[in-house]
Amino acid sequence: MNVERITDLNEIYFPKLGWRFHIDPTAFTIGNFSIQWYGIIITVGLILALVYCFPKMRRFGLDADRTIDAVIGGVIGGIIGARAYYVIFNWDEYKGRGLKAIVDTRQGGLAIYGGIIGAIAVGLLICKIRKVKFLPMLDITVLGFLIGQGIGRWGNFVNQEAFGTKCSNLFCMTGGTVQRYLLDNSTHLDGDLILNGYAVGEYEAGNGAIELFAVHPCFLYESLWCLLGFLILSTVSKHRKFDGQILLMYLAWYGAERFVVEGLRTDSLYIGNIRVSQALSAVLFVTSVILLIVMFFRRKRDPESFVLYANTKESRQLIEESRRRRMGVPLEDIHLDDDDDFVPDDSDDDDDEDSDILGDDDEDEDETEAAAETDEDDSSDDETDETETDEDDESDEDNKEE
Q1: Which of 359, 120, 357, 350 is nearest to 238 (CA)?
Q2: pLDDT one-digit tens code per residue, 291-315
Q3: Residues 6+ apart with CB under 8 A from 230
């Protein structure tokens, strides 16, 4: 779809929907320091992920007090990893520009896969130090990833980046910054503007007239996919069969989407002619699907060997110690037997609340029925006593008459 030329770099246009936005990437300025919408949006995604994950730690058998160090380390590792991944595979752009240009992320330049790798690497290192179980921690962490990715991708919208090739669907977009990128980086070939092997526009050799195409909003596809994935996996997490299941499902879910969407993008990171993120997505998808199938069959053959960490004595002990420590209660006399009943704290889940409410109603009904039966027994006893008394009185009168 051909679109009009846009000279305002801050204008974003969805031609099929008729939507126009004028968004300055700089949210506000403090002195000489500018705060970018990109950073604000990513921060909001991070905060929402933390707000969701911390109250759910106990469901996965984890002590929130122990995991907080791993979370902080994972956030720092994720930022460093995301930037390092982008710079390494885009080194020609940063070579010779100095350290300041390398660490400046205010205009974008963070790679999701680098962030995931960095967050997991640093987070697991701290988990080992703090004696936090890896697989349950990764299960809850990837749910946070989906929230952060789903929200954070809108930073790409503001910066007009992470877009794709020629598009004609309902959500196709263009913009001033998008068009400048296409014009600056494309080459002329047989009447077409070519960028990384894809036609992004047309030109007339005689008069130099250029028409650009609308492009795929890849940021939007990934945002919607991640948020949908969060809804699905957060529901599955309540009924997971083994630790690590949600991690593998996340890798399969995100890998499938990223493989497809990365093939549409015009700004992919390459090694030779191979799109780095697309190749990695294919590997993650295939590997995680195979592991999921293997684990489900193994659990079917031997279910007793697949005990969730949340149901183990070790998990209960650590959570109870943390609870007593917060209350200022001595840690002595904590004796949890394997036969002790234990249900992870899911008081924030609607399903569990409903079951609790239904359970209370059943108990009330049972108590009411029991009370009614007791009353009936009492009344029966009273009637029997009255009958016996009347009979005794009649017998006395008969004796007197005799």
Answers
A1: 350
A2: 999 999 999 999 888 999 999 999 9
A3: 143, 146, 147, 150
For the beta carbon of residue 73, count every other beta carbon within 10 angstroms.
20
How many angstroms separate the Cα of 4 from the Cα of each of 7, 188, 217, 257? 10, 19, 17, 30
Please check whether residue 150 is in contact with residue 44, taking contact to mean a CB–CB distance below 8 angstroms. no
3-state SS, residue 201: strand
Q: In whole angstroms, what is the distance from residue 110 CA to residue 181 CA?
A: 18
**pLDDT: is 138 or 271 the higher one?**
138
Residue among 38, 61, 168, 20 nearest 107 (CA) = 38
CA 210/CA 310 separation, integer angstroms: 62
The residue extents of the domains of the chain are 2-62+133-301, 349-402
Report the distance separating Cα 135 and Cα 124, nearest Å. 10
Q: Is 382 helix (H, G, I), strand (E, B) or coil?
A: helix
Long-range contacts of 98-104 (CB under 8 A, 24+ apart): none
Sequential DSSP letters for 218-232:
HHHHHHHHHHHHHHH
Q: Which two tokens stand for residue 27?
A: 């949210």
Please provide residue 202's backbone torsions phi and psi, each rounded to the nearest 5 degrees: -135, 155
* Residue 99, Cβ density class (10 Å: 0-12 exposed, 13-18 middle, ≥19 buried): exposed
DSSP single-letter state for residue 9: T
Using an 8 Å Cβ cutoff, are 215 and 2 in contact?
Answer: no
Q: Is the pLDDT of residue 244 over 50?
A: yes
- DSSP-assigned beta bridge partners for residue 194: 187, 199
Contact in structure between 25 and 36 (CB atoms under 8 Å): yes
> Is pLDDT of 333 > 50?
yes
The most distant pair of C-alpha atoms in the chain lies apart, rounded to whole Å, by 143
Closest CA to 73 of 120, 117, 138: 120
Q: Is 92 helix (H, G, I), strand (E, B) or coil?
A: helix
> Which tens digit of pLDDT belongs to each residue from 89-112?
888 888 888 888 888 877 678 888
SS3 160: coil
- Sequence length of the chain is 402
Q: Could you tell me if 148 and 49 are in contact, meaning their C-beta atoms sit under 8 angstroms apart?
A: yes
* Element holding 14 (H helix, E strand): strand 11-14
